[in-house]
Structures are given as C-alpha cells and as structure tokens.
Amino acid sequence: MNDLVLTVDEAAARLRVSRWTLYTLIRSDRLRSFKVGRRRLIEVEALNECIKTLAEVA
C-alpha cells in the first residue's frame, strides 16, 4: 500500500489495536493526526514514528 494517509479504522487495523486504543494514542499525543471536515486522518509516517517510539519504550 502506498497510501499517504489512513483513516482511524485503517490505522487501528495496521497496529492490530482497537479504535479506542488508537484514539487513546492520539489523545496522549503519541500519535499525530489531523482532521479534514469531520474525518480524522493519520499520516503513514506518523504511524511509523509512533511504532518506533512505542518500541523504544517497551
């Protein structure tokens, strides 16, 4: 996939976590996101950064 941005559901599926967990990451500023209209989107790069950060902490 060469997507630049992902929906919340797509990002949650890639991380294999629930939507609730993904929104928790967003609210805690661990995962950057932005809104277009009413849709919240996550850049693939931001998702990769989040994964690296979480792996370093683990």
Automatic annotation (TrEMBL):
InterPro entries: DNA-bd_dom_put_sf, HTH_17, SinI_DNA-bd
NCBIfam families cross-referenced by the UniProt entry: excise
Stretches assigned to the Helix-turn-helix domain: 5-51
Protein name per its UniProtKB record: Helix-turn-helix domain-containing protein
Organism: Actinomadura luzonensis
Signal peptide positions on this chain: none
